Amino acid sequence: MSILERLSSSRGERGNVADIALAEELSQRPNTTAIRELVEHLNVRDRRLQSDCMKTLYEIGERAPELIAEYVKDFASHLASKNPRMIWGAMCALDGCASANPNGVYAHLDAIVKAAEGESVIARDHCVNILAKLTNAGHAKKCFPILLEIIRHAPINQLPAYCERAATAVPEKENGALAALINLRLAEVEQKPKRVRMERVLRKLS
Predict the structure, then answer these.
(1) Global pTM?
(2) Pairwise CA distance, residues 160 & 200, whole Å
C-alpha cells in the first residue's frame, strides 16, 4: 500500500486524524522511503493531498525533527505559495527543521521573515520560534534584531508569548535591549494575566 493511501483525503475523512496517526507512526518507526514520498507529493495539483502531505510532515517534525531536516529546501519552496495552508504548513515544518538543521533553515531566513509579514498568526508564531532557535544556534547577529522588531510591532494577544520565547534565546549583551522593549510594550497591556507573564520575563532578565 502506498503511504498516500493512508492520508485523510485518501480515506475520505474531513479532518486530519489519519494524517496525525501516520505522523506518530513514522516518528516512532521511521520509514525514509515513505517520508520521501510525502515530500515528493507536496507539489501535486490536488490541494487536499498537498495539505495532507504537509500536515503529516510537519507533525513528524514536531516529534522527530531529524527525520525531515534534509528537506528544508522543499519546505521553503512553498513559502510564497498562493495557498495559505501551504505557507503556514511550510513554516511549521521549518520550525521543526530548525532544531535539527539550523544552518539549512538559516539559508532561507529572508523568505521565512517575508512569509511571516502577512496576516497569518500561525506563520508569525513559527517565525518567532525559528528566530529563537537560530539565535541559539549561532545566528544571533542577524536573527535576534529581527525578533526584537517582531516584538516591537506584535499584537497584544501574541506579545507575552513572543517575549517569553525571546528570553530563551537572548544573547547576554542584548538583555538590556529586550528588557527595555518589554517595558515599553508593557504600557500598552491592560489585561493582568498578560502583564504578569511579561513582568515575569523582566524579572528573569534583570
Answers:
(1) 0.95
(2) 10
